[in-house]
Amino acid sequence: MEILVQQVLNGILLGGLYAVIAIGMSTMIGIVKLINLAHGDLMILSSYLSLVFMSWLGINPFWSFLAVVPAMFFIGYFVQAFLFNRVLGKEMEPPLLVAFGLSVILQNFLLLVFTPDARSLMTDLAVMTIPLGKSLNLPVLYLVDFLIGVGVILALHVFFKRSYMGRAIRAASDDDQGARLMGVNTKGIYSYAMGISMMTAGVAGILVGMTFTFYPHTGPQYLIIGFGVVIIGGLGSMIGTLIGGFILAEAQLLGAQFVGPGYQLLIGYLVLLIVLAVRPQGIFGKA
Amino acid sequence: MAEQVFRYRWLVVGILILALGTVPIWGSEYFLLFFLLFCLYAGMAQMWNLLIGYSGLLSLGQQAFIGFSGYTVAMLTTYYGVYVWLSVLIGGFSSVLLAMFMSLFIFRMKGMHFAIGTWIFAEILLLWFSNWKFVKYGTGLFIKPASPPSMTTIYYAAFIAGLGATVVVYLILRSRIGLGLMAMRDNEEVSETMGVNVFWSKFFCFLVSAFMTGITAGILYVFQIFIQPYKAFGIDWTIILTVSVIIGGIGTIEGPILGSLIYILLSQWLAEYAHLSLLFLGLIAITIILVAPKGIMGSLQEKTGFQILSARRR
């Protein structure tokens, strides 16, 4: 029984991490109508960036946030300004294919520089637990993932609702033409949005790097997790993204518990397919 | 120039086909291998292009059909001793069944969601086969037919598959369905009100693509003798097909052929640096989308009207 409670608890905590992986994708889909197929790879790029900063400066992963998150903003801004903005238009294929090309380039670039070895961002938190019962433990690292994840999502919510820039971004996404007639540079706005999306990817990348091992090829796996969360939760809903994260993580962990560890990812995908077939707009999405 | 080429186009096409069909007679062993891969990749690229270039379906899950058919061939020949070419054919039909099952889910999605839906299916199959004892988990299966076909026979099979894929696309485009597809590509809503059955046209192309991709992959695995889930269901397949078609030209019949030729040349040239060749391909693909989004053949057609296999009626 306690094992089951443990898995449910871990699932909730892991869900917070999944939600922060997905929130950047959801932002881009919602605002720019762009599925960034390179989101997972850019996230893994930030894990490697953090690794580089850590070994250069001898700091722990938490300090690397200060360097990696701003760096990711600029990377996102320029990727949008120089690549995606040029191909945004009526057709949906070109941006998708550019993102796909970017993903291939990033993966093979990382492979070239960092070799295919497994890496992780070492931290003391990984072995710490808070005992809750006889065999029930709260892994501290998962708790940190959860708290930071929920914090990022709340911050983003406030940003889009309250700040001038956030409202400008929403205006540009609601009515591209109208915003342009009012003198808003919508392409510039999109670049900002991508920068913000990449900041969340930077946070997610460091958290993932601390929690799991990563390779140059792990990006697509997290892209699919992120996309799964977006689909399950529904677009444009911050709460939906959080709940989507919980559902996907619970499905994976309980699936691993009842069916076998090899099937962890498989059960997650199956839940995703069922949601897609029954409610394509997502549980919290508007039809 | 363009006019003259067009007048003699069937002669040109005939000579090319004849040259390609007789490689085992005139070519060295290296040429045979080179053109074997070329025929197979061109066939698969043609089928990916049928989806994106003509039906508006972006599939990132062609590897689902490639792996599924490959494994069907491996299981039938190795475990049940089925005749090798019969099992390749069954592999094609098993792909169609898979496509039908997939469409229950993914045809509810549109555009980008469809693309990722196909990919998720391929990932599911990857996990399924790598956890399945019957196919020896992730270690892979050897394909051991009772009487292994010779290289020449495999080449002819590959040649027929590649040529067949091209002919099938050409015939579909010249047919009623093809006219509907083009109307659909220009404006889906209007074409639907004008009587084009959008769903069935897309579904039909999806099944054709699954069948031909399955057959081609079956032949590929008969040639490779070994199948392993991480390779067979890997996203690398879709990367290769995508990049080849983008370079050659989306929505042209010649594009996938030219693109596969360039891909094979590049990968042979950079054979020792596999990652570099993918890196280059990614760079080339992005450059082409930014500079000449219609690819080599598409841009040529636009500028000079040069077109060998026109799907248009004159």
Write the layout of secondary structure elements.
The complex is a heterodimer of chains A (about 290) and B (about 325).
Chain A: H1 2-32, H2 39-57, H3 61-87, H4 93-114, E1 129-131, E2 137-139, H5 140-162, H6 164-174, H7 176-181, H8 186-211, H9 219-233, H10 238-258, H11 264-278
Antiparallel strand pairs in A: 1-2
Chain B: H1 2-7, H2 9-21, H3 23-26, H4 29-54, H5 62-80, H6 84-106, H7 111-130, E1 141-142, H8 151-174, H9 176-186, H10 188-193, H11 198-224, E2 226-227, H12 229-232, H13 236-248, H14 254-269, H15 274-291, H16 295-304
Antiparallel strand pairs in B: 1-2
Helix pairs in contact in B: 4-8, 4-11, 4-13, 4-14, 5-6, 5-7, 5-11, 6-11, 8-9, 8-11, 13-14, 13-15, 13-16
Annotation keywords:
heterodimer; A: 287 residues; mainly alpha; two-stranded antiparallel ribbon; 11 helices; 2 strands; 2% strand; B: 314 residues; ABC transporter involved in vitamin B12 uptake, BtuC; 16 helices; globular
How would you describe the overall organization of this protein?
The complex is a heterodimer of chains A (287) and B (314). Chain A is 75% helix and 2% strand. Chain A has 287 residues and is mainly alpha-helical. Chain A has one domain (2-278). In chain A, strands 1-2 form a two-stranded antiparallel ribbon. In chain A, β1 and β2 form a beta hairpin. In chain A, α2 packs across α8 (186-211) and α9 (219-233) packs parallel to α11 (264-278). The radius of gyration of chain A is 19 Å and the shape is globular. Chain B has a single domain (2-304), classed as ABC transporter involved in vitamin B12 uptake, BtuC (Orthogonal Bundle). Chain B is built from 16 helices and 2 strands. Chain B has a two-stranded antiparallel ribbon with strand order 1-2. The relative contact order of chain B is 0.17. Chains A and B meet through α3, α4, α9 and α11 of A and α6, α7, α13 and α15 of B.
